[in-house]
Design brief:
Helices cover about 40% and strands about 25% of the residues. By secondary structure, the protein is α+β, with helices and mostly antiparallel strands. A hairpin with a 2-residue loop joins strand 17 (about 390-395) and strand 18. The radius of gyration is 25 Å and the shape is globular.
């Protein structure tokens, strides 16, 4: 069962000051945005619309050229790559020739500042929910699995084995030369009395042992010793110093988070289908990633190779997407700083991101971001991915697998007890995407408006 949520406590006076600050920030954002437009109109006059049209057209042609670069081979690919480089240069030279380059760059700078202020205003206008956490006694018999090769050797570099054993943990160090069933190691440890499981390794290993911890109801510790450590990042752990994660053994608090389930396998981050999942199956991918991708992508993007997928999520169906990413809780979109970050791990929903691009025009349409026709974003409890082949290539938390079709993904709300250090960096508050209409409503809202909405964060 998913644990209760806490709202960050704020006094009435503090809420009033925050509301006033968000309204004035929204007004400032609109003022700066208006200044950006006014600057362009003042300098370029009636040619302002032509300036905008040239810039938008240049972006569209560049996006189309990039599509041709990825989806074609030989001479067409080479010409498309050259075009993708030449078009932005030509647009900038055109602006410089008519003496408008400084005005265009200044307008873009002002618009960027307005967007940043606007995002801050929208973020201030909401109350952030904090996950429920509670103190629990330190474990008596912790059991940790450590992969010495993960993260380029972080286990050895940070002396994690000795530090964990000094804190009373039993540590199983994996042998890189021989495959070991880490889930079986974890089950055996629980049968022998372990009251906490943990992993210093990649997210794939984290998921396998986390599944055993959830199955037996024991807490789980994440030690950020992998390469990317997405799960650790979204738990707010220190990824720069994996040894700090061991503080959870002595001075920790417990959270409840969701797990994803693909078939009968647990995942903590993502399950990916489509072009990327097929490419990583190639034996050559590990040794030469770029060349393998460029060789495989043209046939995959044009549906000449790979399975044809059909995704069903609730009442929505996605036919023949080139890529599908299913995540344990939705990822944050509309924020360059938040790409690859999940504001919550306890929403009780899977995130679904589907991309369907069949031609250069649709590739250019992706410039609209989350509003693009070829982009589908959903939050659901269950997803089914079917294919026109008996099995489907899947990338699950970085592991390349093939699963029988159809593949069903579900969320397991609050399934995992995670023990984290009491003192940890934490996760930045989620910031909403810039919505100019919402900014307008906020800027001119009455002082005593409706209560602020709630957005999740840790």
């Amino acid at each position: 069962m998913q644990g209760p949520q806490n709202l960050a406590p704020t006094s009435g006076a503090a809420e009033h000051r925050q509301g006033a600050a968000s309204r004035w920030s929204a007004r400032l954002a609109l003022l700066v945005a208006a200044g950006a437009l006014a600057l362009l109109l003042t300098v370029a006059g009636v040619n302002s619309f032509a300036v905008l049209a040239v810039g938008i057209a240049g972006l569209g042609v560049t996006a189309a050229a990039l599509w041709w670069t990825l989806s074609r081979r030989g001479l067409v690919r080479a010409l498309a790559a050259v075009l993708a480089l030449l078009v932005p240069t030509a647009v900038l030279l055109a602006y410089a020739t008519v003496g408008l380059l400084w005005a265009v760059l200044s307008t873009l700078a002002l618009w960027t500042v307005a967007a940043l202020i606007g995002r801050a205003a929208l973020a201030m206008s909401v109350r952030h929910r904090r996950p429920w956490q509670h103190a629990t006694p330190p474990p008596r018999s912790p059991y940790l699995v450590m992969n010495p090769r993960s993260g380029g050797g972080k286990v050895g570099r940070f002396d994690l084995v000795a530090k964990a054993r000094a804190l009373g943990a039993e540590v199983a160090v994996l042998d890189p030369e021989h495959h070991q069933d880490v889930a079986e190691l974890a089950r055996r440890a629980v049968a022998e009395g372990a009251d906490l499981l943990g992993v210093a390794g990649g997210d794939g290993t984290q998921a396998l042992v986390a599944g055993v911890a959830a199955e037996h109801g024991v807490p789980f510790v994440v030690i950020a010793a992998g390469t990317r450590n997405h799960f650790a990042m979204d738990l707010g752990l220190d990824r720069d110093d994996p040894s700090s994660c061991l503080d959870a053994l002595t001075d920790g608090v417990e959270l409840r988070v969701d797990l994803g389930l693909i078939g009968d396998r647990v995942f903590v981050n993502t399950a990916s289908f489509g072009a990327y999942a097929v490419v990583v199956q190639s034996p050559a991918y590990r040794d030469d990633k770029v060349r393998t991708i460029l060789r495989e992508l043209p046939d995959l993007l044009t549906h000449q190779a790979g399975p044809r997928l059909t995704v069903r999520a609730g009442h929505v169906a996605i036919d023949a997407p080139q890529g599908v990413l299913i995540s344990n809780n939705p990822y944050q979109l509309g924020d360059a700083a938040g790409v690859g970050r999940r504001p919550r791990l306890d929403s009780g929903e899977l995130g679904v991101l589907g991309i369907s691009v069949d031609n250069a025009a649709q590739a250019a349409g992706l410039l609209r971001g989350q509003y693009a026709r070829g982009l589908t974003t959903l939050a659901v409890a269950e997803v089914e991915v079917d294919a026109d082949s008996p099995d489907v290539p899947v990338g699950v938390d970085g592991e390349a697998l093939r699963l029988p079709a159809p593949v069903v993904c579900r969320v397991l709300p609050g399934a995992l007890r995670v023990r984290v250090p009491r003192e940890r960096p934490g996760v930045p508050d989620a910031k909403p995407a810039v919505d100019w209409r919402a900014l307008g409503r906020l800027a001119f809202a009455p002082r005593a408006g409706t209560p602020p909405s709630e957005v999740p964060a840790r």
